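Annex B. Sample input.
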Amino acid sequence: MKKDAVQFLKNLIGEVKIVSHNDVDGICSLAILQNFLNKRGIKEEHKITKVPIEKLETKDVMIFLDINQDNALKFASSQTLIIDHHQFTKKPSIPFYNPREVDKEAYIPASYLVYEVCSELENMEETKWISAVGVIGDKGDENSELCKKFVDSFENRQELDLISDYIFSAGLVDNVKGNEKVLEILRATKSPEEVVQNIYLKECYDEIQRELSKSKKQMEREGNIIFVEVESRYNIKSIIASQILEKNKSIVVVAYSTFEDFYNISTRTNMETGINLGEIVKKVAKICGGDGGGHRKAAGAKIEKKKFGVFMEEFISEVEKFVK
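Annex B, continued. Sample output.
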Protein backbone atom coordinates (compact mmCIF):
# COMPACT_ATOMS: atom_id res chain seq x y z
CA MET A 1 0.00 0.00 0.00
CA LYS A 2 1.10 3.57 -0.65
CA LYS A 3 0.78 4.51 3.02
CA ASP A 4 3.29 1.79 3.95
CA ALA A 5 5.79 3.14 1.43
CA VAL A 6 5.29 6.68 2.73
CA GLN A 7 5.79 5.54 6.32
CA PHE A 8 8.95 3.62 5.39
CA LEU A 9 10.50 6.72 3.79
CA LYS A 10 9.31 8.96 6.62
CA ASN A 11 11.08 6.80 9.21
CA LEU A 12 14.20 6.26 7.11
CA ILE A 13 17.50 7.24 8.75
CA GLY A 14 21.16 6.35 8.30
CA GLU A 15 22.12 4.72 5.01
CA VAL A 16 20.16 2.80 2.40
CA LYS A 17 20.97 0.71 -0.67
CA ILE A 18 18.76 1.30 -3.72
CA VAL A 19 18.43 -1.28 -6.48
CA SER A 20 16.74 -0.12 -9.68
CA HIS A 21 15.99 -1.57 -13.10
CA ASN A 22 18.35 -0.41 -15.87
CA ASP A 23 15.60 0.85 -18.18
CA VAL A 24 14.29 4.42 -18.55
CA ASP A 25 11.62 3.95 -15.88
CA GLY A 26 14.03 2.47 -13.37
CA ILE A 27 16.70 5.13 -13.86
CA CYS A 28 14.18 7.98 -13.62
CA SER A 29 12.75 6.40 -10.46
CA LEU A 30 16.23 6.28 -8.96
CA ALA A 31 16.96 9.92 -9.86
CA ILE A 32 13.74 11.05 -8.15
CA LEU A 33 14.42 9.01 -5.02
CA GLN A 34 18.00 10.30 -4.82
CA ASN A 35 16.64 13.85 -4.95
CA PHE A 36 14.27 13.02 -2.09
CA LEU A 37 16.95 11.39 0.06
CA ASN A 38 19.27 14.34 -0.50
CA LYS A 39 16.58 16.68 0.84
CA ARG A 40 16.39 14.59 4.01
CA GLY A 41 20.15 14.14 4.45
CA ILE A 42 20.07 10.37 3.99
CA LYS A 43 23.11 8.66 2.48
CA GLU A 44 22.60 6.10 -0.25
CA GLU A 45 24.43 3.68 -2.47
CA HIS A 46 22.79 2.23 -5.52
CA LYS A 47 22.94 -0.45 -8.15
CA ILE A 48 21.33 -0.18 -11.58
CA THR A 49 20.74 -3.70 -12.79
CA LYS A 50 19.32 -5.93 -15.46
CA VAL A 51 16.44 -8.20 -14.51
CA PRO A 52 15.94 -10.79 -13.29
CA ILE A 53 18.59 -10.19 -10.64
CA GLU A 54 20.73 -13.27 -10.18
CA LYS A 55 23.32 -12.01 -7.70
CA LEU A 56 23.28 -9.01 -5.36
CA GLU A 57 25.18 -7.78 -2.33
CA THR A 58 22.58 -6.83 0.26
CA LYS A 59 22.58 -4.25 3.04
CA ASP A 60 20.55 -3.78 6.23
CA VAL A 61 18.20 -1.27 4.60
CA MET A 62 17.14 -1.84 0.98
CA ILE A 63 14.82 -0.16 -1.54
CA PHE A 64 13.95 -1.86 -4.83
CA LEU A 65 12.59 0.25 -7.69
CA ASP A 66 10.92 -1.16 -10.82
CA ILE A 67 12.06 -4.68 -9.88
CA ASN A 68 9.50 -7.49 -9.92
CA GLN A 69 8.47 -8.22 -6.33
CA ASP A 70 9.02 -11.97 -6.65
CA ASN A 71 12.59 -11.29 -7.77
CA ALA A 72 13.28 -8.54 -5.22
CA LEU A 73 12.11 -10.69 -2.30
CA LYS A 74 14.99 -13.10 -2.91
CA PHE A 75 17.37 -10.35 -1.77
CA ALA A 76 15.23 -8.48 0.75
CA SER A 77 16.52 -7.67 4.22
CA SER A 78 14.31 -7.19 7.28
CA GLN A 79 14.13 -3.47 6.39
CA THR A 80 13.12 -3.40 2.75
CA LEU A 81 10.75 -1.34 0.61
CA ILE A 82 9.62 -2.37 -2.89
CA ILE A 83 8.05 0.12 -5.31
CA ASP A 84 7.07 -1.67 -8.48
CA HIS A 85 4.31 -2.11 -11.07
CA HIS A 86 4.86 -5.61 -12.46
CA GLN A 87 2.63 -8.62 -11.91
CA PHE A 88 3.45 -10.63 -8.80
CA THR A 89 2.39 -13.98 -7.36
CA LYS A 90 1.94 -13.19 -3.67
CA LYS A 91 1.71 -10.19 -1.39
CA PRO A 92 4.96 -9.69 0.53
CA SER A 93 5.06 -9.19 4.31
CA ILE A 94 7.43 -6.21 3.96
CA PRO A 95 6.43 -2.66 2.94
CA PHE A 96 5.65 -2.40 -0.77
CA TYR A 97 3.69 -0.25 -3.18
CA ASN A 98 2.28 -1.80 -6.31
CA PRO A 99 -1.06 -0.62 -7.79
CA ARG A 100 -1.71 -4.19 -8.96
CA GLU A 101 -2.45 -5.11 -5.35
CA VAL A 102 -5.78 -3.31 -5.81
CA ASP A 103 -6.20 -3.57 -9.58
CA LYS A 104 -4.47 -6.46 -11.36
CA GLU A 105 -4.75 -4.62 -14.67
CA ALA A 106 -3.14 -1.40 -13.40
CA TYR A 107 -0.17 -0.15 -15.45
CA ILE A 108 1.49 2.74 -13.67
CA PRO A 109 5.29 2.91 -14.09
CA ALA A 110 7.53 3.09 -11.03
CA SER A 111 8.76 6.61 -11.82
CA TYR A 112 5.22 7.92 -11.30
CA LEU A 113 4.82 5.87 -8.10
CA VAL A 114 8.12 7.08 -6.62
CA TYR A 115 7.25 10.70 -7.43
CA GLU A 116 3.81 10.19 -5.88
CA VAL A 117 5.16 8.67 -2.65
CA CYS A 118 8.01 11.14 -2.18
CA SER A 119 5.64 14.05 -2.79
CA GLU A 120 3.71 13.01 0.32
CA LEU A 121 6.74 14.03 2.40
CA GLU A 122 8.65 16.66 0.39
CA ASN A 123 8.06 19.16 -2.38
CA MET A 124 9.21 17.17 -5.42
CA GLU A 125 7.95 19.53 -8.11
CA GLU A 126 11.42 19.91 -9.67
CA THR A 127 11.44 16.17 -10.45
CA LYS A 128 7.95 15.99 -11.95
CA TRP A 129 9.27 16.09 -15.52
CA ILE A 130 11.69 13.24 -14.73
CA SER A 131 8.71 11.19 -13.63
CA ALA A 132 6.98 11.97 -16.94
CA VAL A 133 10.07 10.85 -18.89
CA GLY A 134 10.06 7.54 -17.01
CA VAL A 135 6.35 7.05 -17.70
CA ILE A 136 6.92 7.68 -21.42
CA GLY A 137 9.90 5.33 -21.49
CA ASP A 138 7.76 2.52 -20.08
CA LYS A 139 4.78 3.42 -22.32
CA GLY A 140 2.62 4.15 -19.30
CA ASP A 141 0.74 6.81 -21.24
CA GLU A 142 -0.29 4.16 -23.78
CA ASN A 143 -1.55 1.75 -21.15
CA SER A 144 -3.08 3.93 -18.44
CA GLU A 145 -5.54 6.81 -18.66
CA LEU A 146 -4.06 8.24 -15.45
CA CYS A 147 -0.57 8.26 -16.95
CA LYS A 148 -1.85 9.69 -20.24
CA LYS A 149 -3.41 12.66 -18.44
CA PHE A 150 -0.22 13.11 -16.42
CA VAL A 151 2.05 13.16 -19.48
CA ASP A 152 -0.36 15.27 -21.57
CA SER A 153 -0.27 17.96 -18.86
CA PHE A 154 3.27 18.88 -19.99
CA GLU A 155 3.52 21.46 -22.78
CA ASN A 156 6.97 20.18 -23.79
CA ARG A 157 5.86 16.61 -24.52
CA GLN A 158 8.15 16.28 -27.56
CA GLU A 159 11.19 17.15 -25.45
CA LEU A 160 10.24 14.52 -22.89
CA ASP A 161 9.86 11.91 -25.64
CA LEU A 162 13.33 12.77 -26.92
CA ILE A 163 14.86 12.59 -23.44
CA SER A 164 13.37 9.13 -22.98
CA ASP A 165 15.05 8.06 -26.24
CA TYR A 166 18.30 9.71 -25.11
CA ILE A 167 18.35 7.73 -21.85
CA PHE A 168 17.58 4.46 -23.60
CA SER A 169 20.30 5.10 -26.18
CA ALA A 170 22.97 5.89 -23.57
CA GLY A 171 22.30 2.56 -21.88
CA LEU A 172 22.63 0.72 -25.19
CA VAL A 173 25.86 2.44 -26.19
CA ASP A 174 27.71 2.54 -22.87
CA ASN A 175 25.86 0.00 -20.71
CA VAL A 176 26.52 0.56 -16.97
CA LYS A 177 28.69 3.61 -17.66
CA GLY A 178 25.92 5.09 -19.77
CA ASN A 179 23.29 4.48 -17.10
CA GLU A 180 25.43 6.14 -14.44
CA LYS A 181 26.14 9.08 -16.75
CA VAL A 182 22.40 9.53 -17.33
CA LEU A 183 21.79 9.49 -13.60
CA GLU A 184 24.47 12.12 -13.09
CA ILE A 185 22.95 14.32 -15.80
CA LEU A 186 19.40 14.02 -14.42
CA ARG A 187 20.58 15.01 -10.95
CA ALA A 188 22.69 17.93 -12.18
CA THR A 189 20.28 19.52 -14.67
CA LYS A 190 17.36 21.71 -13.67
CA SER A 191 15.20 21.44 -16.76
CA PRO A 192 14.38 19.21 -19.75
CA GLU A 193 15.93 21.82 -22.04
CA GLU A 194 19.35 21.23 -20.47
CA VAL A 195 19.09 17.48 -21.02
CA VAL A 196 18.06 17.86 -24.66
CA GLN A 197 21.16 19.98 -25.25
CA ASN A 198 23.53 17.52 -23.57
CA ILE A 199 26.22 16.57 -26.09
CA TYR A 200 26.94 13.12 -24.65
CA LEU A 201 23.31 12.05 -24.75
CA LYS A 202 22.82 13.41 -28.25
CA GLU A 203 25.86 11.48 -29.52
CA CYS A 204 24.54 8.25 -28.00
CA TYR A 205 21.13 8.85 -29.60
CA ASP A 206 22.67 9.57 -33.01
CA GLU A 207 24.79 6.42 -32.76
CA ILE A 208 21.74 4.23 -32.17
CA GLN A 209 19.82 5.91 -35.00
CA ARG A 210 22.71 5.12 -37.37
CA GLU A 211 22.79 1.52 -36.16
CA LEU A 212 19.04 1.15 -36.68
CA SER A 213 19.38 2.27 -40.29
CA LYS A 214 22.05 -0.33 -41.12
CA SER A 215 21.16 -3.27 -38.87
CA LYS A 216 20.32 -6.55 -40.59
CA LYS A 217 16.80 -7.88 -40.08
CA GLN A 218 15.36 -11.18 -41.27
CA MET A 219 11.58 -11.50 -40.94
CA GLU A 220 9.06 -14.28 -41.28
CA ARG A 221 5.35 -14.22 -40.54
CA GLU A 222 3.10 -16.84 -38.97
CA GLY A 223 -0.49 -15.58 -38.99
CA ASN A 224 -0.63 -12.57 -36.68
CA ILE A 225 2.94 -13.06 -35.45
CA ILE A 226 6.03 -11.55 -37.05
CA PHE A 227 9.36 -13.10 -36.06
CA VAL A 228 12.38 -10.92 -36.77
CA GLU A 229 16.03 -11.82 -36.18
CA VAL A 230 18.16 -8.75 -35.51
CA GLU A 231 21.90 -8.61 -36.13
CA SER A 232 23.47 -5.62 -34.41
CA ARG A 233 26.22 -4.87 -31.92
CA TYR A 234 23.59 -3.08 -29.80
CA ASN A 235 20.51 -4.46 -28.10
CA ILE A 236 18.00 -2.71 -30.36
CA LYS A 237 15.39 -5.48 -30.57
CA SER A 238 12.71 -3.60 -28.66
CA ILE A 239 13.09 -0.52 -30.87
CA ILE A 240 12.76 -2.58 -34.03
CA ALA A 241 9.76 -4.43 -32.62
CA SER A 242 8.07 -1.10 -31.87
CA GLN A 243 8.86 0.20 -35.37
CA ILE A 244 7.26 -2.88 -36.94
CA LEU A 245 4.17 -2.40 -34.78
CA GLU A 246 3.79 1.15 -36.03
CA LYS A 247 3.45 -0.16 -39.59
CA ASN A 248 1.21 -3.17 -38.85
CA LYS A 249 -2.10 -3.47 -37.02
CA SER A 250 -3.27 -6.31 -34.77
CA ILE A 251 -0.01 -8.25 -34.67
CA VAL A 252 2.54 -9.62 -32.24
CA VAL A 253 6.24 -9.01 -32.91
CA VAL A 254 8.93 -11.38 -31.65
CA ALA A 255 12.37 -9.82 -32.13
CA TYR A 256 15.39 -11.91 -31.18
CA SER A 257 19.17 -11.71 -31.35
CA THR A 258 22.13 -13.92 -30.51
CA PHE A 259 24.09 -13.72 -27.27
CA GLU A 260 26.63 -16.53 -27.10
CA ASP A 261 24.57 -19.77 -27.13
CA PHE A 262 21.33 -17.99 -26.28
CA TYR A 263 18.64 -15.88 -27.92
CA ASN A 264 17.55 -12.72 -26.17
CA ILE A 265 13.92 -12.18 -27.11
CA SER A 266 11.72 -9.08 -27.06
CA THR A 267 7.99 -9.31 -27.74
CA ARG A 268 5.53 -6.47 -28.39
CA THR A 269 1.90 -6.22 -29.45
CA ASN A 270 -0.76 -3.63 -30.26
CA MET A 271 -3.60 -6.16 -30.10
CA GLU A 272 -6.63 -5.53 -27.87
CA THR A 273 -7.80 -9.14 -27.47
CA GLY A 274 -7.08 -9.84 -23.81
CA ILE A 275 -3.69 -11.24 -24.72
CA ASN A 276 -1.05 -11.03 -21.98
CA LEU A 277 2.48 -11.34 -23.37
CA GLY A 278 4.00 -11.27 -19.89
CA GLU A 279 2.18 -14.44 -18.88
CA ILE A 280 2.65 -16.14 -22.26
CA VAL A 281 6.38 -15.47 -22.46
CA LYS A 282 6.93 -16.54 -18.86
CA LYS A 283 5.09 -19.83 -19.49
CA VAL A 284 6.76 -20.60 -22.83
CA ALA A 285 10.26 -19.65 -21.66
CA LYS A 286 9.86 -21.98 -18.68
CA ILE A 287 8.91 -24.84 -21.01
CA CYS A 288 12.17 -24.17 -22.87
CA GLY A 289 14.22 -24.05 -19.68
CA GLY A 290 14.72 -20.29 -19.89
CA ASP A 291 13.54 -17.14 -18.11
CA GLY A 292 10.89 -14.72 -19.25
CA GLY A 293 8.15 -12.30 -18.27
CA GLY A 294 7.03 -8.70 -18.45
CA HIS A 295 3.88 -6.72 -19.12
CA ARG A 296 0.66 -7.37 -21.01
CA LYS A 297 1.90 -5.75 -24.23
CA ALA A 298 5.66 -6.03 -23.81
CA ALA A 299 7.73 -8.91 -22.50
CA GLY A 300 11.14 -10.51 -22.89
CA ALA A 301 12.94 -13.82 -22.49
CA LYS A 302 16.29 -15.55 -22.68
CA ILE A 303 16.50 -19.14 -23.95
CA GLU A 304 19.06 -21.48 -25.47
CA LYS A 305 19.30 -21.15 -29.26
CA LYS A 306 18.68 -24.86 -29.74
CA LYS A 307 15.31 -24.47 -27.97
CA PHE A 308 14.08 -21.64 -30.20
CA GLY A 309 12.06 -23.95 -32.45
CA VAL A 310 10.13 -25.16 -29.40
CA PHE A 311 9.71 -21.57 -28.25
CA MET A 312 8.19 -20.58 -31.60
CA GLU A 313 5.75 -23.50 -31.64
CA GLU A 314 4.59 -22.97 -28.06
CA PHE A 315 4.39 -19.21 -28.47
CA ILE A 316 2.27 -19.48 -31.62
CA SER A 317 -0.02 -21.97 -29.86
CA GLU A 318 -0.53 -19.64 -26.89
CA VAL A 319 -1.16 -16.55 -29.03
CA GLU A 320 -3.70 -18.40 -31.18
CA LYS A 321 -5.84 -18.87 -28.09
CA PHE A 322 -6.53 -15.13 -28.19
CA VAL A 323 -6.72 -14.65 -31.96
CA LYS A 324 -9.64 -15.90 -34.04
